[in-house]
Amino acid sequence: MTSEHSVDLSKLQALQSKLRQGHLSGKTKPEAQRYTLLSRLEALVIDNQNEICAAITADLGRPAEDSIIAELSVVIEEIHTAKANLKKWMKPRHKWMPLVLFPSKGYIAPVPFGVCLIIGPWNYPIQLLLAPLVSALAAGNCALLKPSELTPRCAQLLAQLLPRYLPDDVVQVVEGGAELSQKLLELRWDFIFFTGSTAVGKIVARAAAQYLTPTVLELGGKSPCIVDSTANLEVTARRILWGKALNAGQTCVAPDYILTPRDNVQPLLAALKKVLAEFFPEGFKSSESFCSIVNERHFARLSVLLNEHQKELALGGRAQPSSNLIEPSFFLFDSSSAATAAIMQEEIFGPLLPIIALDARDQAIEFINAREHPLALYIFSADNNFIENVESQTTSGSFVANDTVIQLATSQLPFGGVGESGQGSYHGMSGFNAFSQWRSVLKRPFWLDLPVRYRPLRPWKMWILRKLLKFSEPAKVSSPPS
Prior knowledge:
- By secondary structure, the protein is α/β, with parallel strands linked by helices.
- The protein folds into two domains: 4-219 and 427-437, Aldehyde Dehydrogenase, Chain A, domain 1 (3-Layer(aba) Sandwich); 223-416, Aldehyde Dehydrogenase, Chain A, domain 2 (3-Layer(aba) Sandwich).
- Helix content is 42%, strand content 18%.
- It has helices at residues 9-24, 31-47, 49-60, 64-90, 127-138, 152-165, 178-186, 198-211, 233-245, 265-279, 296-308, 335-338, 363-369, 384-393, 428-434, 459-469, and strands at residues 93-95, 105-112, 115-119, 142-146, 171-173, 191-195, 215-218, 223-227, 255-261, 313-315, 319-320, 325-326, 329-334, 352-358, 376-380, 398-401, 415-416, 422-423, 425-426, 436-443.
- The strands form five sheets. A seven-stranded mixed sheet has the order 10-13-14-9-8-15-16, sandwiched between helices.
- Helix 8 links the parallel strand 6 and strand 7 (215-218).
- It is globular and about 85 Å long.
- The model has no long low-confidence stretch (mean pLDDT 94).
């Protein structure tokens, strides 16, 4: 554990060197040792769940129940999946070798990269550090974790807990802000895993490019939500509001805007209003199940959007500056005016949700494709043909029909973005693969060494080689008529 004020580059290099020694010792490579490390991490989460939830509440104002559902259970699911499948994941995958390579055997085998840097965000300060750590340990790596400085209690708690459960030559934690992150990125890592904004992701990518370091970038973007007139609006409203209200909309895959036919706007709005009253019967200010905005700066940013779009405000709009609370708020836009609206220029990352009216539902595909590829794309419809059309004609990190955010609840589906929303993916086996280099291995004996491959390459040798390589002679072309 260290803080930004006490760390210089040489101290970071010393921490990295300790991790390097741990990796080179081979202690993280055996299956039994990986299993033990994962079990210790599981014990950390289970033993200290109350303290972890309290730290999250102190940093984010999030109810403990939400933290158990959206953070700790995700980490435990990742650990259980990794432990149950570790033997299978680590097994080399044998490949059939062609006759030209006879006798030989070939396979690909997962090899740990070595020492990994994992930089976490503030919105899910435990899950988005420990879930990648599960993948790193399962793949046999050592790791240095950099928590977000915007959630200092969580960072401090992780720095206290991890050394109690995991060896310090396998996992290290450093605390600090942007300056510390910059220093870390000056070092040469074997692998970098970053979760955060697209803007910072580009900085990480540039730093990694200096050493051609492999990376996984889990970024964000504006995730659209299509609602057509065939959808069950009561269920739709409930699932949209659940996904948007979770962590007060401070979720990278939260619905960022709704696209719906014009004649569906008012019925959808009425359904949202009804569900809002069901979710928060005493109002958002007194509700114990609503999360606050992380800090005053982000509250001010969202307040500017709220004030700027008072004309379009259709539902909600109240805020409580003393506790950084903003209630779920909905805005109405026409498709033509939405393109230039301030709220549509970047990811909202808060409980504000524009509803954009379309002349026809098929316009939704064109609207989405005119923008950067989203991290998630949601569609609510009872028309399977329309769902398939949207799926086949768009690109996104994940595609979910008739729900939101729930795709993160399973380790069986990879999580990741595309283009501006990220590169690479993890969770479950995808995480193991992301933190592994799949090395090609070819092995041959000495007992057969045919001369046909060696020089000089006589015509008879080439005839045999062509047969073995399944590479035919060029066709004879007759002379053109005079």
